[in-house]
Amino acid sequence: MTIPVILDVDTGIDDAWAIWSALRSPVLTVLGITTGYGNADVETTTRNTLLITELANADVPVVPGAAKPLWTPWEGPVPDFHGHNGLGDAELPPVFRKPTPGDAAQFIRETVRAHPGHMTIITVARLTNLARALLYDPELAPMIRQLVVMGGAAFCPGNVTPVAEANIWGDPEAAQLVLSAGIPTILVGLDVTHQARLTRDMVEGMRRNDPASQLFYQATRFYLEAYRRISPVFEDWCPIHDALAVFVAEDPGLVQTERYPVAIETTGRLTRGMTVVDSRSGPYPPSPVEVAVGLDEPRFLNAFLSRSGFFPNPV
């Protein structure tokens, strides 16, 4: 039996890898992909998502969603990391598929209610779409089997501020609402995604003989250079954050997790968007949030490289 999933994205470069990996998974059945603002505006992320599904020859509903955070203005796209078109300014072919009519939050609600107790939701974007679904339908949370969130910086620095990771920082109110809803959750944050490393040598070894491989090669080279510019730590590699969440959804044993009470700071001038993990010992009630703290990187990379079909010699 496969695992039915909804994938929630803001399709930039690592989202594209996540979508590609999910659509080619022998374990996951993608019932729909919901889109939102983040790496680019929702119109661009929706177009990029449709493009990846088209290149994968996957007939999957793509449902547009939030254009801004729940209650605050949107800070705008991040072209420094994802280019002005969200895919590293790679030359993009025309897209012929159209988005599915409707709204992402409503699609999440209807799909979960159609499969109560069976759905896994993988979020690799701001948590606005899922938060809106929970606000519309307060009885929805217990019907979700599993939530895998690419987001947070539990025991490491953030990547937008010293303490905040981008997907949480982008809508902390939504993140707090979702993480306090009682859904069984694996938090796949920077603590482990910075161990999911795609090296320059791997990228240069990609085949480039069809539209999909050419797009992923061009986009990922841009991503490598974007990371190299921000820190010498990333001299010859980039993290593929979002793809890791997909592989964790199908094989949670890829990561070592520890269960903690987790909250998101929403008001602090310096700490807004911080993932607050209560690691004190004490008689606390069981938390539904498992925080990923370690990764079996060789096993992940072997699975990721092999599944993509772009690397002639997977590790």
UniProtKB/TrEMBL annotation:
Residue stretches making up the Inosine/uridine-preferring nucleoside hydrolase domain: 5-301
Presence of the UniProt keyword Transferase in the record: no
Residue ranges of the TM segments: none
This protein's record includes keyword Transferase: no
Pfam family, one: IU_nuc_hydro
Gene Ontology cellular component list: cytosol
InterPro entries: Inosine/uridine_hydrolase_dom, IUNH, Ribo_hydro-like
Protein name per the record: Inosine/uridine-preferring nucleoside hydrolase
Organism: Sulfobacillus acidophilus (strain ATCC 700253 / DSM 10332 / NAL)
